[in-house]
Structures
1.
Amino acid sequence: MLAVEVNHVAKSFTDKVAVDNLSFSVAQGEMFGLIGPNGAGKTTTIRMMMDILKPDSGEVTILGEKLNEATKNRLGYLPEERGLYKKLKVLDSIVYLASLKGVDRHSAAEKANELLTQTGMSASKNKKIEALSRGMGQIIQFIVTIIHDPQLLVLDEPFAGLDPVNTELLKGMLADLRNQGKAVILSTHQMNQVEELCDRILMINNGQDVLYGDLREIKARYRGNSVLLDSEGELGEIPGVTGKRTHKDYTELILDDKTTPQQVLAHLISHGMVINRFEVATPSLNEIFLKEVGKKS
Amino acid sequence: MNKTLLIFRHEFLHMIKRKGFIILTLIVPVLALIGIGVFQLASTDEPPLVETVTIGYVDEAGGFDQYTTQGYIELVRFDTPDDATAALINGDVSEYFVIPSDYISTGVINRYTLERQLETPPAIATVIKNFLTSNLLTGKVPPDTIELVEKPLSLTVTRLTETGEVATEQGGYGNVIIPAIFGLLLALSLQAASLYMVEGLGDEKESRLIEVLLSSVSPRQLLTGKVLGLGAAGLVQVVVWLVSLPLLLNLASSTIGGFFSTIQLPANFLVLGIVYFILGYLLFAALSAGVGAISSSARDGQPLTMIYALLVFVPLWFASLLFIFPDSPIWTVLTIFPITAPIEVMLRLGVAGIAAWELAASLAVMVLSIIGVLALSVRAFRVYLLMYGKRPGIGEVLRSLRSG
């Protein structure tokens, strides 16, 4: 059973088409990246998945069925712009919102204490939400998102506003959840986070699908025929290399169509070169993103 | 637990912990207790000394020389108007009047004063009248008759039932006072409840918490839970008031007496008071949920609540007309119109009662209005859920409700 199945979904607002005939699926135990520039339609897509917005056409299936009260209890949602009841205490907020996900108050309090300890927030459990810093509030919201042990997590810009320590904490927790077989959808425009965490991605721009599939395959598809080399000594003439670009710490060697990186490496070793770094040049997701978004616009 | 009940519980607890709610709930018994206490303290002191007032008069008709002491007013005779004027200017008398020689035929008395007045104070007019009557009648009728003539009319009215028995509810202002106070408090409470609802929804929208809530519950569950939570808080408030009112009334009646001993609770007042309070709360909460739905923030929604929060006071504005013309059809309209119904019913219960069909129509319209308004609010809520910008126009709201 797929965690999410979106089929030909479209949504328009009075002044623009936000999502245009979009289809994708997310499997259980998968970390999925939903990426795109600001205004691409990521949040609208998520809101349709959460049944907050009704699509104009198309269908969304969550955990094998149309979203209903039972499936709502099995998903966790962290919206992009966040807030909690300012006047409520941390523990009370978590327990109330967990109870709306079908967790009984006693279990919710127990689990909340456990998660607060895990995130180093237990000292704040009796503080009012308004007394917390933005980052701390975000951690509490993350706890609210996962406290009911959801099968599907949808996180809209989860790392925005977090310091490096909390970012790493969250990444670790997300990896654990994925390893437990949960499906995680990360919507973000922070490409490095997606590159680091996600198995598959959907890149959208102007509400349309730009790139969709396995991240490694996509990167391989965009791989150019060049290698990055950091070596000691004079390089000299290398057969099959048509050009060189010198960067600060390395040199990029452009290969002709018939030459493979392995042949270049064999040539360098056979000539006794001291090699500190030899890497097949793969474009970053950010470069692919800029290329694709630039192409479309 | 059902999710609507969870929201209901949360909203109810949140509401009854609000300072404004606690103050409004407790202010009735506390103020009444303070009033009774102050009266008791004041009544244990010696009665204040009333300064004697001296009024002059000139008797040109002759024969007006007895009964010159009328309560705290002393009447002093002068021979001529000039003498009386001199005494008035000197401050020996506060005013004077002249009984002209043709008084018996004309009945006219001339009064002179240094003060600018709209009319003769009733106490002075009574003193002058009694002085004249006493002197005119003395020696002609027994003193008891003179006393009777001077006393104001004392009417004892007894209301009978259609079978000729003495009715349990006798009417009069004593019967109106509690419903009128209750109506005023209900109006204030409904106004406060409307603001709380709009504020709560506005905060949830502004903080975007609404998206988290709606990933767990449906708009119908959310709004129904909120409306019921507010209604239950209203019930707590009315129970506190209705339980404390009869107790305070007994206390006031036994310690103060007088008018308080004539105060009665109209028949069915307790039951209808609770029913209309709850229905009123539910209606106003549902209306405010609709306002909250189409407003992007609490501040944006509050002016809209004023439209119906002011309409609720209409029965109180026209209460004096209700006392004079209790049978006007206008009161039937206000009884059936759901926004004015709670207060109008309370007032009419005290003044002249309400026909059974009017009550039935009023209750039916209120219940249907609550259901209808809540359904429209849920619809509007989904349409305008993510509208964080400006409020839509009325035309736009109506169009989207039809198509939504």
2.
Amino acid sequence: MGSLTGTGHLVRLILRRDRFRLPVWLLAITGLTAFSGAAVRSTYDSPESLASYARTVGDSAVGRLNSGHQVALDTIDGIVANEITIVTNVGVALMAMFLVVRHTRAEEESGRAELVRAGVVGRHAAPFAVGLVAIGAAILLGALITGVLLAVGLDPAGSVAFGAAHATLGLFFAAVAAAASQITYGARGALGIAGGVVGVTYIVRSLGAMGENALYWVSPFGWAQGVDAFGDERWWLLAVVVGAAAVVFGLAAWLVTQRDAGAGLVQPRPGRPHASRALGTPFGLGLRLQRGLLLGWLVGLAALAAVYAAVVPLVPDLLEGNPEMAEMLQISGTEDMVIDQFLAYINVTLGVIGCVFGVASVLRLRTEEEGDRAEALLATRLSRRRWIWGSLGVTSLGLGVIALGMGVAMVVGYLGVEDASRSGSLLAGVLAQLPAMLLVAAVAFLVVAWLPRFAIWVWAIVAFVMVEAMLGDSLRLPEAVRSASPYFHLPLYPSEAWTPLPGLVLLGLGAAATAVGLTGYQRRDIGR
Amino acid sequence: MTTALEFTDVVKTFGTVRALDGFDLHVETGEVHGFLGPNGAGKSTAMRVLLGLLRADSGSVRLLDGDPWAQAADLHRRLAYVPGDVSLWPGLTGGEVIDVLGRMRGGLDDKLRRQMLERFELDPAKKARTYSKGNRQKVALVAAFSAHADLYLLDEPTSGLDPIMEAAFQECIAEVRDRGATVLLSSHILAEVESLADRVSIIRDGRTVQSGTLASLRAMTRTTVVADTREPVTGLERVAGVHDPEYDDAHGHRVRFDVDTDHLEAALDALRAAGISSLQAHPPTLEELFLRHYGDEIDTGEDD
């Protein structure tokens, strides 16, 4: 029996299990690309607007931070590529990562992999089968992106290069996830490692693009973008990404042979034979169960906030060199106003990303139920109300800590490059997002309480507030749609004056949603 | 005697499935009550209704003189629960899980906890994700028996335990029974129920099909008789209540048959006429009772 025996069966099993999930990933990324591509195309329809894009958005620090260094920004092809690149880059990386971890480490953790390995299946068959599916999915996504760009009417060679670059990125991050899955015992740990690699390599490319230095070429995102789709098309760089992916896949295959089935390279250590006092309350238990989640988001978002703050001083320089930008932004002269607008955008961006923690935290209630662990707790003297308050308490505290952490990181990041003059407004600007973050979490709770079977759909709410906040302008969403997002109602502080009323209204709505949710949760059956 | 828990004509549906369909159950304080049924018969649903996790659609449920839905948390002060499929928080150690559940219940007895860890040979310092199924089951058992509860709801508590641990479990039941606690023990391990239970209820398709002491259940059914006689037995077929006599040898000197318990005497008269040289009679085992109710399903191998 070879080490790959049984791969064919496993590939079919994976496709069967992911017959809905995988198409949703592919269609969501493709759909968002198509929307935004079409919107960008119709926005930049005159030679003047094309020319101003290159001088303003394209060369700005913020532009580089988000999208790296795209070539041909004076053409519609380059502009579309530049606008969609954050979605497609991160989308393909996350799709590959979740796919691979779900079918490797998560399977081993659940014990299902054992059932499979007991059959006529080789040691490398499972990772190899997942690898094949991931490669197929990455190539398909690349082809779909190329198709979208062609449909929008962009240059054929560039469209193919752009799609192909994304296919290779998918390959690379599938390999990273496969290697990460060998290291930890749990799927969450593997996702944490792989997600960390995605985040760090993305930021490294951003820093490289902003500083126009060698950091750009350290990151696989840099190699993929360095293909220069819609420019000179350096096709050979695709081979570099594929080669790197092959090396990481090889590393994963070697790591497989270094460990026992079911175990990780890092063995779990023995823990405490007794529970600490803090574990005696539902809040304490919730905090313990969610501390990894909270810590991960806190560190990631604080790092992002610090990076954003550190580029703030570059914004006025940009203004001096680009009078057109001042004109476009309708700013009459003062540097502070430009900075304020930039900060207002950053604040809401951090706010919508931060609400992901809140929703993930609320969904823990549902996973506790589905895993029958809620049953064990609720068979004790613990009432449903106290159990829920304990968990929601962790969610609220976590959101508060994350908002505070992002604010402090902004202050620190800014202090690294400038003085303390803006500290107060930096901190307040992020904290002002908290009511909207809490409201999104409260709505997620409302769904979990009343429609537990549809709990997973609360991610659609998160996707909506993100699209509204980050792409609402470029997609030209109608105001009626945008006003469904709580973030839309908060003042664009510091470029607008802060008023307490919108935040208070959102908090009131959040409290009402929580109260209604609590009623529902106490009336329904607990369990699957 | 007082009533520890009672279901009266309880219905619980999930969509179109009637998990409990006019279900009745009566458990007295201080008894060990065996709760038998195949997979999917509604045992776990009944347990979850008792725990106030599920709300019955109709009928009445009483638990320790209270309403298990409305007064769930208060009533849980007095009960301990062990599920058949224990899932634990993967990042917590077994010891931490035992303490968490114990504290939520209102505190546990440290001495008893130590004693139970020893009895079940459980290492409390290991992370729950590294435990086998049997060890996860032990965590739940230690957590339950480290508290002084009035009522123990045990839903197939020994699935995954080896025979030595099974014995340790029986010891626990004997101890809590001596204290006067009530036990509702759902199981499909008949030997376990047979040796522990005072009374038994058998559930099928969401209804109780039979309930009573083992003795009364047996009285309602047939006794198996095996006899050697000096002369061939004649006329046995004509005795009312005798079922399917089988003759083991050509001369008819050895016969085996089942007889309804209230017709036992007439059957023995027929044997006596042929001159009994050896006689064995035994009441139906729980297996036989059980198979009588589920025989058709077991024959077709239907299971979930």
